[in-house]
Design goal:
Blueprint (H helix, E strand, L loop, with lengths): L5 H16 L2 H20 L3 H20 L3 H38 L17 H16 L9 H9 L1 H4 L7 H9 L6 H33 L6 H32 L17 H7 L2 H15 L6 H19 L3 H21 L13 H26 L3 H13 L11 H20 L10 H18 L13
């Protein structure tokens, strides 16, 4: 069930109608059933993985909270880590590492019997694994009390709006929203609808329309220099619109049901350095990696070289989280390198803040810094999008010595219009520091904006709608 398909909105209409008729606890039970139906529509067999993770972490959390010996608490934590990371490793990485080992043996001159393991990747496994792990780790750190209602905990793990591609919610944020009665309001309904509309424009009008042009160049045997540059710029826009579009719809759907999901993107391409970028891009993952991996490795304790080591290890593993391929590891190392270089040159970055009051000259300087750093981000996206190491080497060379010309397929006019609308929207959020800036405008203006967005969605919709990019992670 895709957010961009009619069957999801029919499903959501039925869920919403039942939701408003039921009391609080019955709402939670109905949402749990709906979440399992939503996930089971992809492949019902993988519901067993969610259920296993749910049972194990629920039991571990309760037992850990009552254990008095530290060694017993640590054993329980290792059970949770082993089960969750074990499932993730088998279904996502086992085939990749076996293939890599075979290639290494072949390179070393040994004959390896071919062994292939065809394992289907359960959609969303990386997201709900990290989400439920944060629960047991927080209990182990004594930062969270366990949930005693099993069905409420099961809903935390499987809540359908953000189950497949995040944001990766923390138990301390989402569980109270589940256990306490929620208040429905027309204001939340309206704000949720606007988020859904914006997310659909990002995905359908922009990302899906850009994708064929990007795919054509990354599949081309002989692209020009400007083909590579333009396709990589476009992929930067595609992946942002695809992923943040999913998050917008997930947050909008949840908001209409009275839930508050965390903001996962904050105009990331307005960043001027790598530290600011990772405060704005995939916030739920970057904060998860910071809190549960980087700090556990030692963080910035122990001197600069250990800090750089911890940054590189964290980002390399963060890259591997995105997919079982070496280009994702290389992308992670590249991001870790940017963070380390920035830290070495600038020290701790002083946050400027969104909507900060700046002089005209300061804004010009910042815009130039944004434009320069965006190129560094885009080279990272080239590493991310490339299909092989050979293509990375080839495309990198073409950035400097490639033939002239431009052969990239034309992008639909609606996509350009959508990009302009999105740019203006993000600039207004950045300038005001308020994601709901439009609510202070007169009703007639807001009505015109909503009508225009609906028209743009209808005008720009294509029949080539595809699954969200992050479903593969």
């Amino acid at each position: 069930m895709l957010f961009t398909q009619l069957n999801f909105w029919l499903f959501f209409a039925i869920v919403s109608a039942l939701y408003v008729l039921l009391p609080h606890k019955a709402q939670n039970r109905m949402l749990l059933v709906a979440s399992y139906i939503f996930y089971g529509a992809w492949d019902w067999r993988f519901l067993s993985l969610i259920l296993l993770s749910t049972f194990i972490d629920y039991a571990v959390g309760l037992r850990m909270a009552t254990a008095t010996r530290q060694d017993k608490r640590k054993q329980l934590l290792w059970i949770s880590l082993a089960v969750n990371l074990g499932m993730l490793g088998i279904f996502k990485y086992l085939g990749f590492f076996l293939d890599s080992f075979q290639e290494l043996l072949t390179w070393a001159g040994y004959t390896a019997d071919p062994f292939t393991l065809s394992i289907v990747l359960p959609v969303g496994i990386s997201f709900y694994t990290f989400q439920t792990l944060s629960y047991t780790i927080d209990i182990y750190r004594r930062e969270l009390k366990p949930c005693h209602d099993f069905l409420d905990f099961a809903l935390f793990v499987a809540f359908f709006p953000q189950l497949v591609a995040g944001p990766i919610e923390r138990a301390k944020n989402l569980l109270p929203n589940i256990s306490a009665p929620r208040i429905l309001s027309w204001d939340a309904l309206g704000r949720g609808a606007v988020l859904c509309l914006l997310g659909l424009i990002k995905k359908v009008v922009i990302a899906d329309a850009i994708a064929p042009s990007v795919d054509a160049i990354y599949a081309s045997p002989d692209p020009t220099r400007w083909d590579v540059i333009l396709a990589t710029w476009l992929f930067a826009i595609q992946i942002y619109c695809d992923f943040s579009g999913y998050t917008d719809i997930a947050r909008g759907v949840a908001k209409m049901l009275g839930f508050r999901l965390m903001r996962n993107f904050a105009q990331p391409y307005f960043a001027v350095d790598p530290q600011e970028f990772w405060r704005r891009w995939h916030i739920s993952l970057s904060t998860w990696l910071r809190d549960y991996l980087y700090i556990s490795l030692g963080g910035n304790r122990g001197g600069p070289w250990k800090t750089y080591r911890n940054l590189m290890a964290t980002m390399a593993l963060g890259g591997l989280w995105h997919g079982a391929a070496w280009n994702f590891v290389l992308w992670g190392l590249y991001q870790g390198g940017l963070l380390s270089i920035h830290r070495a040159l600038a020290g701790t970055h002083k946050r400027s803040g969104e909507g900060a009051q700046r002089s005209a000259m300061a804004w010009v300087r910042r815009i130039l810094m944004i434009a320069v750093f965006f190129q560094a981000v885009c080279y990272g996206w080239l590493l991310f999008r490339a299909t092989s190491f050979a293509q990375i080497v080839d495309f990198t060379g073409r950035l400097f010595t490639g033939p002239p010309g431009l052969t990239i397929p034309t992008i639909p006019a609606a996509a350009y219009l959508g990009m302009v609308v999105l740019l203006v929207w993000d600039v207004l959020i950045e300038r005001t520091g308020n994601v709901r800036f439009y609510q202070t405008w007169p009703m007639v203006i807001r009505a015109g904006i909503y009508a225009g967005m609906i028209y743009l969605l209808a005008f720009g919709a294509t029949t080539a709608t595809s699954a969200f990019i992050y479903f593969q992670f």
